[in-house]
Amino acid sequence: MKKAVAVFLGCVLLAGLFVGGAAAAEKHKVYLITMDQMDQHWVTVNAGAEKAVAELGTIDYKWLAPDVKDDAKQIEAVNNAVAGGAEVLLVAANGPTAISAALKEASEAGVKIVYVDSPADFPAIQTLATDNEAAGVTAGKEMLKALEAAGVAEGKIGIVNVNAATASTVAREKGFRAAFEGTKFELLETQYCDGDAARAKDIASNYITQGCVGIFGANEGSTVGTGNAIQEAGGKVVGVGFDKSNMILSLIKNGFLVATMAQNPDVMGYEGVKTAAKALAGEPTGAEYVDTGVSVLTKNDL
Q: Is beta strand 238-242 parallel, antiparallel or unpaired with respect to 212-217?
């Protein structure tokens, strides 16, 4: 009898180990690859992704990103993720073309692609992003409203952007410029900072020296630099930007930025992981493009 019980318990133990091992083996590898790890925007995308991972319990998740915006480093991150056994890549591409060949190779190796925030010129299961052009129009209208309130009907407007290739910020600029069509304002040639706040501050300071009455920052770093330059110059220029961080909110609260277009990066990361899980399970993933929305934050909202 004792021997039979021992055999039974041994079988139960082995079954438990097998089930536990199977459960562990069922975890799918999903990697998040963003433009960098320094912007609060990407930290929040990651936080949203981690929340979904915790809820699902079936995802082995890792965030890989360069320390600075750099095409070669982002491509290296893609290659490292594939080498690490990635089954799905959540990607925010620096630009539409540089990373495309690496994503094509990943896809040919069986890896599924989901875009969060900024797509490349390569097909994906889904893109979760802000309607950036529409949000850019909103940013332009917010600046026009603030200029009108200040009694300013004409003058130069500066634009600080990331680069000429990142699809999301290019679309924001396009929308922003469209908002000024038919007005007496002169929109100057865009200057690029690669998202670096210190470089953005220098650019914005130069715009202020040129007599600009307003400056638009197209992402977090551009916006922080713009606000800091306006603060240094005495706060007489209207600054409007994109993204939400503690620094940006502080600049708005203290009157050095009028407004920022707050995206929902947590939704991008959260829903991106959910889409990845559905794709891995062979379930429908829904629309190819999902607008994750934007809100206008002003001093009155803080």
A: parallel
